[in-house]
Amino acid sequence: MNLSFHRSSSCLIVKMSGELDLSSASVFKERVDEELRKTGAANLILNLQGLDFVDSTGLGAILGRHRQITLGGGKMILTSVPPKVQSMLEMAGLFSVLQCERTDKDALQVIESPFQGGAPR
Amino acid sequence: MKNEMSLTLLCVPSNVAVARIAVATFAASLGFSVSEIEEIKVAVSEAVSNSVLHAYPHGEGEVTVRATTEDSEPHGGELVVEVRDTGAGIPDIAKAKEPGYSTIPEHMGLGLSFMESFMDSLLVESAPGKGTTVRMVKRPCRQ
């Protein structure tokens, strides 16, 4: 799995590619948590466009980041969700929990909106 | 044509991908669609992940992944996948099958639910101290 990080004004944008399973979930958690600490970002966008495979361990790692961000008063949004990842989210009943937007730009608009946005940092 | 593969792997996280890719490659010759192959990959990933996570809490151990297919009726074209470890076993299979039940933080407890949903049948045999065997069957939709 490959991760690339971009900092926007109010949030951390993580582009994920490859496979998110038992062997990569811990690396994903550690690197995202470390980047959140380093940047102080309170909101998180996970761009899943390049994600080829995810299983329940990978979904658990994504949900764990969501819990962490929302506990801190921020917002986490998934973007560019591939159809097969979307069907896994549906199977796991996560669509009611995790917000999805089409693009990073759409997600940033949601986060920066004064009415529905996340934490301002 | 009857065919069979068997793979014995050390129970380590990096072998989860080895197992699912091997079974997916084996299944690709059986007429499964791309989305069915993805479902098989998830099911194998879940089964092997469970062995890696739960079977050998105090040391090393192995997991064996066996895939077979028959062409003779009544089982023609179906894929049978067995994932077997000789580890700790499951004390309460019914409890383990409950969606959302997990003994590990940040794990969703959906592994067995996914196996059940993505394959046509699932059988779990396990006893404490005697290991676990998961047997899953899938038939191509075109049949």
Can you name the CATH architecture of chain B? Answer: 2-Layer Sandwich
* Number of domains as seen in the coordinates of chain B: 1
Q: Provide the CATH topology of chain A.
A: Transcription Regulator spoIIAA
What spatial order of strands do you see in the largest sheet of chain A?
A: 1-2-3-4-5
Distance between the termini of chain B: 16 Å
Order of helices and strands of chain A: EEHEHEHEH
The assembly state of the depicted protein chains is: heterodimer
What are the segments of chain B in which pLDDT stays under 50 over at least 5 consecutive residues? none
Average of per-residue pLDDT values of chain A: 92
Total discrete domains of chain A: 1
CATH architecture of chain A: 2-Layer Sandwich
Percent in strands of chain A:
25-35%
The percent range for helix content of chain A is 40-55%
Largest sheet of chain A: 5 strands, mixed
Pair with the biggest interface: A-B, 18 and 21 residues
Radius of gyration of chain A from the CA trace? 13 Å
Descriptive overview:
- The complex is a heterodimer of chains A (121) and B (143).
- Chain A has 121 residues and is an alpha/beta fold.
- Chain A has one domain: Transcription Regulator spoIIAA.
- Chain A has helices at 22-39, 56-71, 83-91, 104-112; strands at residues 2-7, 11-20, 43-54, 76-79, 99-101.
- A five-stranded mixed beta sheet of chain A has the order 1-2-3-4-5, sandwiched between helices.
- In chain A, helix 1 runs parallel beside helix 2.
- The longest helix of chain A is centred in the N-terminal third of the chain and has 18 residues, at 22-39.
- Chain B has 143 residues and is α+β, with helices and mostly antiparallel strands.
- Chain B has one domain (3-138): Histidine kinase-like ATPase, C-terminal domain (Heat Shock Protein 90), CATH 3.30.565.
- Chain B has a five-stranded antiparallel beta sheet with strand order 1-2-3-5-4, with helices on one face.
- In chain B, a hairpin with a 5-residue loop joins strand 4 and strand 5.
- Chain B is globular, with a radius of gyration of 15 Å.
- In chain B, 39% of the residues are buried.
- Classes of the chains: A alpha/beta (121), B alpha+beta (143).
- The interface between A and B is medium-sized, with 18 and 21 residues.
